[in-house]
Amino acid sequence: MRLNLTLSFAASSSSCLPRCRSACPSIGSAGGVDRDPVTLTQHELQNHFMPPFKAAIDAGAMTGMDTYISFNGVPMSSNPSLSKDLLRTDLMFDGFLVSDWDEINLMNSYHHNASSDQDAVKKAMQGSSIDISMVPYDSTFIGFMKSLYTAGQVPLDRMKTSAKHIVEVKLKQNLYSVPVPSAELVNQLGDVASQAAALNIARESLVLVKNANNVLPLDPTKKVFLTGASMDDIGLLCGGWKCSSK
Fold first, then answer.
1. Fewer beta carbons below 10 Å: N end or C end of the chain?
2. How far apart are the first and last CA of the chain?
3. Residue 223 pLDDT > 60, yes or no?
4. Which helix (DSSP H) or strand (DSSP E) does residue 74 occupy?
5. pLDDT-derived band of residue 105, with 50, 70 and 90 as boundaries?
6. Mean pLDDT of 210-220
């Protein structure tokens, strides 16, 4: 299981963009589908899942990404106990928080706790500390926010708080003076050092299992055994975003 809040760290002085410097510990659904609900006790959450997030924030994480799941029946995009109380107050995260891909609208189309996309935006602005809505294919979020503000359902202070989070990160990273990375950083993409690091991570993720007393009926003359539903699925082997969302 995973709590899918991605935290990004301040970049080194040679780069002008915040970037992720660690693996992203997360709570995923028990069924393995990234939008399925998660049920956990506060003890499990605080003791088993939160320490890596606290360490990341203490180390200087500047940005975070929310998640599709519902936690104990409440979608993360409108969950004040986690998005506000835990993240902002207890963990003292003061960077900016972006939604996952089209996450807010899913309260209407998937979680069904919102009556429309505009109602979903209202719930997100009232119940979460999300600063940026990642909607890949339209800009209706802007119109919804204008309508909600005019109707007095999203106060100006809420928008100012999000703007403050975003602007502060940009100032810390000097993005107003250097809006894009310099050309000299291009050579670092896929360089030898990066490939070596990726290979080492892959090696360290391997699990060696000893077939003691021949518990598994394996052919001793064979050197390699591949099993599981994903072993011949190139889409799944390359990652969930290489194929349709599951």
1. C
2. 15
3. yes
4. strand 74-75
5. very high
6. 86
Q: Which tokens hold the place of 21?
A: 């410097």
Q: Which residue has the tokens 């969950």?
A: 79
Q: Provide the pairing of β-strand 61-65 with 6-9.
A: antiparallel
Tokens 């599981």 appear where?
Answer: 228
Evaluate whether 30 touches 54 at the Cβ level (below 8 Å).
no
Average pLDDT over residues 170-191: 84
- Read off the DSSP letter of residue 184: G
> What residue ranges define each of the domains in the chain, with the CATH number in brackets?
19-173 (3.20.20.300)
Phi-psi region of 237 (alpha: psi -120 to 50; beta: other; left: phi over 0): alpha
Catalytic residue among 36, 66, 85, 100: 100
79 touches 127 (CB < 8 A): yes
The answer to whether the Cα torsion of 230, 236, 239, 245 is positive or negative is negative
Q: Output phi, psi for 61, to 5 deg.
A: -55, 130
**Residue 34 designated active-site:** no
What is the C-alpha separation between 6 and 102, in angstroms, rounded?
16
Q: CA angle 231-236-239, nearest 5°?
A: 130
Phi-psi region of 37 (alpha: psi -120 to 50; beta: other; left: phi over 0): beta
Q: Which two tokens stand for residue 72?
A: 């104990």
Q: Extract the tokens encoding 85.
A: 């109380």
Q: Is the pLDDT assigned to residue 9 strictly greater than 80? A: no
**DSSP conformation letters of 130-163:** --B---SS--HHHHHHHHHHHTTSS-HHHHHHHH
Which residue, chain included where needed, has tokens 């959450």?
A: 45
